[in-house]
User: What shape does this take?
Amino acid sequence: MLDQEGIHNRTDFNLQIKRLAGTMPADPVETLLDVLSPLKGLKRDMGLALNPAKDRNRAIPLSRVANIVLVDSETRYKFRDALATYLNSHGLNSEQTFRTWLLRWSHNEALLQPYFAP
Assistant: This one.
């Protein structure tokens, strides 16, 4: 992981989550961001290229969700492993583990609603 190499992306990630959450609890935001994948370079560059120049201010801090999402999210690794285990075994325990992950995100959707309210 990057933290082991001296890159403190997890510390920065936690600070950015708190900033995104504002005065609301940060946990639902973290739950969402933990499973998102960052845009790969070309897709991101194309998105920037297609936006009008006035919308692309390089002086703006890297504070968008695309800038905050972790490259090496431990949660994504755990979910991927749970899915692979379930698909390989179809066992009751692996199904329950997989369902727990899905239910967590399903419940998180309701928790996130206030963040998107006008």
